[in-house]
Design goal:
Layout (H helix, E strand, L loop, with lengths): L6 H12 L9 E4 L6 H13 L4 E5 L12 H17 L1 E2 L5 E7 L2 E8 L8 E2 L8 E4 L2 E4 L2 H9 L17 H7 L2 H7 L8 H10 L3 E4 L2 E4 L1 H7 L15 E6 L5 E7 L4 H15 L2 E6 L2 E6 L3 H14 L10 E4 L3 E7 L21 H9 L9 H12 L5 E5 L2 E7 L9 H17 L6 H7 L7 H13 L3 E3 L11 E3 L3
Parallel strand pairs: 1-2, 11-15
Antiparallel strand pairs: 2-5, 3-6, 4-5, 7-8, 9-10, 11-12, 13-14, 15-16, 16-18, 17-18, 19-20
């Protein structure tokens, strides 16, 4: 990049502060020369580091707003002094940037102090109340209430925000990330101007600008990488699709390791799945049609959930889709969040370890962030006449299994009870109760099987999975709801 990303905004702020009447603003602080008061300089650094968006110290501008310039020798002294103060005088330490630029007829030094995510930035070795903020174009000590507000705005860096690459150029970013595909998913044109492109990538959390280069974030790489192998920390995080012959792992047909980022490679994965999964032939309007044995919407939701909700701190493991003759298993690294229970995932309030990935998948129209994903899965499973969805936490992993079509008579009693419970949840979320009739329709059974369904409902009640909605009503027209209602 020809220009450091923050320079245009800093120069614009400087110009704004000098006209029509010279006045310092919260984002800019003029300095005629370097002060001998190191403690005061550290206060300016803390104030800008606590300020939303950070700020810039401008050396070479008098107190009356006249730019008189700065020499090369003074630049070296200023940069060295402030760099040392940012490292040794404040907590957490600051990484500063600087640039000598022309402004009017003079050269000025801009020292950029970025906003810190962990706040308050305070004097090293002292309490967090020893901190400063910008107010009315000046630097002053923060009050106790303001310290509390800074703490509320403090956040530890999330996995998605961390660096996935060394410092690279914008051209390298375009080579490593499929930005055209991301723009297409967002239904917007890709910015042509270099500065506009950088701003867009920063807004999308895909890069962290640094000087004349930038770092690709973990989010940018995992969502948009043309090849995950370009990012060594993420090489093992690609989704693996494995097909087996039979019902165990003994005989492998083939394996497709995911090479691309999740967002840009999702449709390709679903298309491949559609091609390799078994189909059945049905006749619709006198025409033979190939129909998948598994509902595509259910597979899309389950795979998207595995990608979004995995625990990226689990090293050496990535999400997997395993296809057997009688089932498909979708596994992601990491246990369920402590607030979640396997049998309460249907219709639950959405919660994710990876918030940026989850919200971006919604914006990419890959999935919704409404907590309706498992509802769609269960609804599709019932429509296709499949066994119940199996949700199983494992050691450091979570697995979801969707079974191939199987008749009611071929299901085990525990499968029937689980299908009964999931149907009750689906009905409850649709403001409807479970009845003998609705459950028979779920299993595609005739009215003559009413007694079998009555017995199944009784088994589900005894197992504590469902309960009577109104205990006082007769058994013939009894209605049931999930056990937790």
């Amino acid at each position: 990049m020809a220009t450091k990303h923050w320079i245009p905004a800093a120069l614009s702020g400087l110009a704004e502060s000098l006209a029509p009447v010279p006045h310092e603003i919260n984002e800019i602080d003029w300095k005629a020369r370097l002060s001998d008061n190191s403690a005061r300089l550290a206060e300016h650094l803390m104030a800008f580091a606590n300020h939303p968006g950070g700020g810039t110290l401008v050396f070479g501008v008098d107190d009356d707003g006249v730019a008189h310039g700065i020499t090369a020798e003074d630049i070296a002294t200023v940069v060295g002094t402030l760099t040392n103060l940012g490292r040794d005088a404040v907590e957490p330490p600051l990484a500063l940037d600087h640039a000598a630029v022309e402004f009017g007829d003079s050269n000025v030094l801009l020292v950029r102090v970025p906003e810190q995510s962990v706040k308050p930035v305070h004097r090293r070795g002292r309490s967090i109340e020893e901190t400063w903020i910008r107010s009315g174009g000046t630097t002053r000590k923060a009050s106790r209430q303001e310290v509390g507000a800074l703490m509320l705005h403090s956040s530890t860096p999330r996995w998605e925000d961390l660096r996935a690459s060394p410092l690279v150029s914008l051209a390298d970013v375009q080579r490593m990330l499929d930005l055209e595909a991301i723009a297409k998913l967002l239904q917007r044109p890709l910015p042509e101007d270099e500065q506009d492109l950088v701003r867009w990538l920063v807004d999308e959390n895909m890069i962290l600008p640094e000087g004349r280069g930038c770092y690709v974030t973990n989010f940018g790489a995992i969502a948009a990488a043309r090849k995950l192998g370009d990012f060594p920390p993420l090489d093992r995080k690609g989704i693996r699709l494995i097909r087996y012959r039979g019902t165990n792992k003994v005989n492998t047909i083939d394996e497709l390791p995911g090479q691309r980022g999740y967002a840009v490679g999702f449709e390709g994965l679903v298309t491949h799945l559609r091609r390799v999964l078994p189909h059945s032939e049905v006749i619709q309007q006198s025409l033979r049609t190939e129909v998948s044995l598994y509902p595509e919407i259910a597979l899309r939701e389950l795979i998207a959930n595995a990608l979004i909700h995995q625990d990226f701190s689990v090293s050496g493991a990535g999400p997997m889709v395993e296809i057997y003759d009688d089932r498909i298993e979708v596994t992601n690294p990491g246990m369920l969040l402590p607030s979640k229970k396997p049998d309460r995932l249907i219709g639950t309030t959405p919660e994710s370890r990876n918030e940026k990935l989850a919200s971006s998948f919604r914006r990419f129209r890959i999935c919704e962030e409404r907590g309706t994903g498992f509802q769609k899965v269960i609804s599709a499973i019932e429509l296709f006449g499949l066994p119940p969805l199996l949700l199983a936490p494992h050691e450091n992993a979570f697995r979801v299994t969707i079974g191939a079509p199987r008749k009611f008579a071929d299901m085990a009693i525990q499968e029937r009870i689980e299908a009964c419970y999931q149907h009750a949840v689906l009905q409850y979320l649709s403001s409807q109760p479970l009845t003998n009739t609705t459950l028979r329709e779920r299993f595609k059974l005739h009215d003559k099987h009413r007694n079998q369904i009555t017995n199944l409902i009784s088994d589900a009640v005894d197992a504590g999975r469902i309960k009577r909605k109104d205990v006082g009503s007769g058994k013939k027209f009894a209605e049931y709801v999930p056990y937790w209602v």
